[in-house]
């Protein structure tokens, strides 16, 4: 059986703040994120099984990513935990779904953070190959396992 | 001359059945497939030739893929040869353009099967680099030569 | 910190002529080009800096590519320097923004030429990973540093 990569697209709406940024992104603002999750593996080779010919059922992939990522980040605001405590306290008062990350929530750090979360969530024999995260319609960041010795 | 990858996009409408699948995909249903065929090679370096600067004329690439893949699979129904003989006989009665594959016609197996067909169809010096097959607007499978020692 | 790839999309309108081509592309014609520029690097890891978490500010990437590529090639006509001198002279009379390339301006040669221009234009620690150039809505060429020992 050939090794095949499978990818599923996800969308979520998220606000963020870039701490200390010299420009309008230091204010709360939102993006329509598009996330592509790519897994790699050999399709199941067993004619008795319903998932015969699949690396992973697209439905299963969808469920895992929704549970781990999009249901949490959709309609959230994401802020860096290292911002001044009083500012952080204000945000906590204002926003219902606030996610505090140990990193600046840039597109680059988010895609790397999502990779950390997803790495061990897939069935045996199926590996996380790469993630692609569109922040705007014309800009995206990608994490590849092969770039990071994973 | 640099090594360059060239890609052409193709579209076809196809029905399939997933044998033994535990869900609605076990019934005949169709998708609007989008196939990306990527070749790799050095552009021709001869100012006397009309295809100077091309890895392969996009028109030639189009002709080969249409002939080998899309003209056959467009408006076809694809079923696994391992389904029960009486069920297969029924499908043969009902459908004019039926393609029987030795594999479950998932997106993964189709893209690997297309790679097998296309591998030796391009001119010398031009190699099949990868194939990407969208099954739905948000899900696709990819075959890479480098993943498969080709 | 993970190694991350960042990509920005650019668009420009350009005419070209394919010298000696056996088909309509030997005449002046235009395309709506779409260029994807992908860089690779480690995001800045310094909470005091505004670009903390970025491989490169998307705004800086945009500025460099616009200055080096799209502002020059947008609404230009690109012709091969090896075409007959009298024909070249005619083009120079007719067109205000004419770019003469040492190569046939195919999609393949353009993307390789753009790579040559961009290779040394980014800050230290940020490398040009790949370029993708759509010539039409369904055909594109790609240059990868890894394919070309860069």
Q: How far from one another are the termini of chain A?
A: 23 Å
Structural class of chain A: alpha/beta
Mean pLDDT of chain A: 96
Overall geometry of chain A: elongated
C-alpha-based Rg of chain A, rounded: 18 Å
Question: Which two chains share the most extensive interface?
Answer: A-B, 24 and 30 residues
Count helical runs of chain A. 3
Order of helices and strands of chain A: EEHEHEHEE
Biggest sheet statistics of chain A: 6 strands, mixed
Assembly state: homotrimer
**Strand portion of chain A:** 25-35%
Please state how the strands of the largest beta sheet of chain A are arranged side by side: 4-3-1-2-5-6
State the helicity of chain A in percent bands: 25-40%
Protein traits:
homotrimer; 150 residues; alpha/beta; six-stranded mixed β-sheet; 6 strands; elongated
List the helices and strands and how they pair.
The structure is a homotrimer of 150-residue chains.
Chain A: E1 4-16, E2 29-41, H1 58-73, E3 76-80, H2 85-94, E4 98-101, H3 107-118, E5 127-136, E6 139-144
Parallel strand pairs in A: 1-3, 3-4
Antiparallel strand pairs in A: 1-2, 2-5, 5-6
Written overview of the protein:
- The structure is a homotrimer of 150-residue chains.
- Helices cover 25% and strands 34% of the residues of chain A.
- With 150 residues, chain A is α/β, with parallel strands linked by helices.
- The first copy, chain A, has a 6-stranded mixed sheet with strand order 4-3-1-2-5-6, sandwiched between helices.
- The first copy, chain A, is elongated and about 60 Å long.
- The first copy, chain A, starts with a strand and ends in a 6-residue tail after the last strand.
- Chain A binds chain B through residues 1-10, 38, 40, 43, 47-55, 58-59, and chain B through 18-23, 26, 80, 82, 103-109, 111-112, 115, 135, 137-144, 147-148.
- Strand 1 of chain A pairs antiparallel with strand 6 (139-144) of chain B.
